[in-house]
Amino acid sequence: MTKALKKFFPVFAGPTLLAFMIAFIVPFFMGLYLSFTKFSTLTNARFVGADNYARAFSEKSHFLPALGFTALVSIISIVTVNLGAFALAYFLTRKLRGTNFFRAVFFMPNLIGGIVLGYTWQVMLNAILQRWGQTIVNDWRLGLAGLVLLVNWQLMGYMMVIYIAGLQNVPPELIEASQIDGASRWQTLRNVTLPMIMPSITICLFLTLANTFKMYDQNLALTNGAPAKQTQMAALSIVNTMYKKIGQEGVAQAEAVIFFLIVAAIALIQLRATRSKEVDA
Fold first, then answer.
1. Between the chain's N and C termini, which has fewer beta carbons within 10 Å?
2. CA angle in degrees (0–180, nearest 5) for 171-105-78
3. DSSP notation for 188-228
4. Residue 162 — left, alpha, or beta (φ > 0 → left; ψ -120 to 50 → alpha)?
């Protein structure tokens, strides 16, 4: 049986592996090469060494401030999304009426596209702020608050579903044993429930980290970096450098490589840290 599976492995896995190579691996290494060149098209690339990386970190570049703002949005969003999602999941796994309805309602925002969400929240927030003579692009702190609210509204329901799955897999006998031993609800939650749902926490932290760090369309629609690029996140900054600054294509590619390495490193550290705390049921 094993030999038969190995024999037909290229037939079934080959097309997928080929598509992965064409769509991901080849473009990645092409992009890595282009980050060391000055180019406007793929046919006129001229090698310039590490000059693009130096320019990406220069004082004239908007990339470093964008990275800082991205980190700020991501840190706040990761904490608030996961706390809110876990709280919703915890209450919706209690024996209450209408829980399925509320699960569907909270999950629905995740189905809406980022551009639509951005413009929708821009209209709603501006309608509120105009009472005080403000708009969301008048102050970077308003833009920050708007982005965090948008991310929470979009992602919380999705993370809630993952936490619900984790909570439903906690063995009831462990909960009963802790109650028999006289543990309070908080002690049971901290010492029994949370360790048992660490796989769900690992997944949710990874997804919120990845989604907030690479956020582009919501940022574009909600603030477009205003005021004065103070609410410009890293992905939007890279796109603007690539398409709005003539002769800066190589710099934008270098910024993309740097951004990829930063996000990948943070994600790997997070995965290793949370997986080390997972326990077997």
1. N
2. 65
3. HIIIIIHHHTHHHHHHHHHHHHHHHHT--HHHHHHTTT-ST
4. alpha
Q: Which two tokens stand for residue 68?
A: 């800082």
Neighbours of 161 (CB within 10 A): 19
pLDDT at 281: 54
- According to the model, what pLDDT value does residue 277 have? 79
CATH class of 61-276: mainly alpha
What separation, in Å, do the N-terminal and C-terminal C-alpha atoms of the chain show?
32
pTM of the model: 0.90
Q: What are phi and psi of 38, to 5 degrees?
A: -105, 125
Please give the Cα distance from 100 to 93 (Å, whole number): 10
CA atoms within 13 A on the CB side of 238: 22
User: Measured between alpha carbons, how far is 103 from 81 in angstroms, rounded to an integer?
Assistant: 16
What span, in angstroms and rounded, lies between the C-alpha atoms of 191 and 164? 18
pLDDT tens readout for residues 154-212: 999 999 999 999 999 988 888 888 888 888 888 888 888 898 999 999 999 999 999 99
Pair 93, 164: CB distance under 8 Å: yes
Name the residue among 234, 240, 228 with its Cα closest to residue 260.
234
Between CA 112 and CA 154 the distance in angstroms is 8
Q: Which residue has the tokens 């984790």?
A: 166
Which regions of the chain are under pLDDT 70? 1-2, 4-5, 279-281
Residue boundaries of the structural domains of the chain: 1-35, 61-276
